[in-house]
Amino acid sequence: MLAETICSAVSAAGLGIAAIAAYRKRFLSAARIAAYALVPLGLVMTGAVAWIAGTAFSPVAWAGFGLLGLAWVLFLSTRAVERRRAGRARPAVAEADPRAAAPAAPAAPRAVTGKPRAAAEPAGDDFGDIEAILKKHGI
User: Fold this and answer.
1) Which of 51, 62, 67, 110 could crosslink 42 through cysteines, CB 3.0-4.6 Å?
2) CA distance linking residue 38 with residue 46, whole number of Å
3) What is the pLDDT of residues 37-85, one digit of tens each?
4) Cβ-proximal residues to 55 (8 Å cutoff; 6+ apart), any chain
5) CA 101, CA 117: separation in Å to the nearest integer?
6) Alpha helices (runs of H) in 24-138, residue ranges in sequence order
7) pTM > 0.70: yes or no
C-alpha cells in the first residue's frame, strides 16, 4: 500500500513538472518527462508488486499496460523528432557558408611560360592569385 502511494505521488509530481516544461514551450522535454512519470503509475496499475494475484483478468492492470505502452511510444517519438532535427542541422550549416555548398569553379587558364609548375593547384584555391604574384616577383 505504501509503495503504491509513493509511486502515485512520484507520477503526479512528474506530470506536474511535464506541464511546467510544456508551458515553457519545451514540448520534447515535456513529453519525455511525462513518459518517465507514467512508468511508476503504470507499474502500480499493473500490480507489479503483487503480480501473482490475478493480473491477467484485471482491467486496471491492462490499463496500466496501456500506460506503459503510451510511455514507450512517447519515448520513441521524441527520439525520432530529435534525429530529424539533428539531420536538418547539418545542411543548415552548409547553407550558411556559400563556399561549402557551391562546387569549386575551375581555375582560369594561365599563359604558358617557360617554367614548369612545381605543383598542381587545386580548383577553387583562394591563394592562387597571391601565389602567382609572388612567383612573378621571384619570392
Assistant:
1) 67
2) 12
3) 999 888 888 877 566 456 666 788 888 889 999 999 999 999 999 988 8
4) 46, 47, 61
5) 29
6) 27-46, 59-96, 98-101, 128-136
7) no
